[in-house]
Amino acid sequence: MDYSSAPAAASPSDNITIVGAGCFGISTAYHLLKRGFQNITIIERSDELPAKDGSSNDINRIVRTSYPDPFYAQLAIDAIKSWKGDVDIWGDSYHESGVLVVGGSPYADQSYISDVQNGLRLQKLANSAAIRQCFTKDITVGEISHGYLNRDSGWADAGKATLLLTQKVIALGGRLISGKRCVKLVRKDGKTEGVECHDGTIIASSLIILAAGPWSPSVFPELEYKDRSHATGQGIAMVQLTQEEADRYREVPVFTNFGTGFYCFPPTENNIVKMAIHAPGFTHIVNQISTPRTVITHPEDGLFIPRPYARRLREEFAAVYPELAKKAFSNTRLCWYNDTSDGDWIIGRHPTDSSIFFATGGSGHAFKFLPVIGRVVADAVQGLLEPQLMRKFAFDREMTHDTSRDIPGMTREELDTNDLCGPEI
Predict the structure, then answer these.
(1) Which domains does the chain have, with CATH numbers?
(2) Mean pLDDT per segment of 10 residues, for the chain of length 425 residues?
(3) Less Cβ crowding at N or C end of the chain, within 10 Å?
């Protein structure tokens, strides 16, 4: 594809359908509506918003500026300005707890250099004694050799923020249809003119934006999308604290180890500490395509996680907060993402069908950009995205295998449904 000139631009009068009301979809709808687009329809498979098994519906997500890539670093700064400043949209969904970055890796080192260059409020922590200064004396912290604290970062209540932006989209005139699964594209003379839902409903469109997150590879298999990204399940676990414990740990920063992928959060208002590992994850192959396996499709064990993964979570948690790691898990969840091999998103038109537009491939790091990711998509829809970003996010780009999900000793595996566990390991 030639990226030297802008593609055909969509017009504000065009009839646009967005498939998926998660991070990409709802942010794109918001930014298009704010730019004067008048005919925006969002189709969401779930009858509950945000979808209870969607990755954009969770108790927290890290909001950090620490990226070695200058584009993502600056976009994160822009997002945080909105998280903090646009309280009419986000309310109290953002919490600037700071993010403690540890783990010796090129990713961590380059992220620190980027944060320094961007003039952020940083505290270099040269040894374990310095790291302990980030916590009050009544908190037991494991031996962590070095890192840095980024005070201009924190976390967001993902479910709350997604719901608040959804309400804004509806108030701006967006048409949101819930409880309908898209099953195929409607084509005439080789051109896509709409989508058909599971109940036979056909929704005509001049442009269809596929923003279905981890369902993107499987929702329209005729697009031959499966080699561009994969749905991966990422195990998370939670610990329920007592009120006294939560009060002691309330002001701790988000912890993230770029070397092992482990991260955990301060307690929520319900006194829950969540932890996970940003790792290669697990596939679930159905009809040769990795497809999310969730509490909706598998009510009995859709929240369970692989047993070996649960043990590793426990070990990583103990290395940070040994006192809390003695507590039983209160909940588990396999959270599904749409991962590209290079970690960059997929934003742009299908190379052979200009009526199809992609806004997906979040790769486990998109949610922090909820306030602004739709701005990037809207620029692309209107033909305003810079050529270098068009290349970066193109559907048909050549993908490398250099991503923050590359964790030593961990490889992507097919989910073994015979070795899953809930809170009881």
Answers:
(1) 15-414 (3.50.50.60)
(2) 61 97 98 98 96 95 97 98 98 98 90 97 96 95 95 98 98 97 92 95 97 96 85 97 98 96 97 96 96 96 96 97 97 96 95 95 97 98 97 93 77 96 88
(3) N
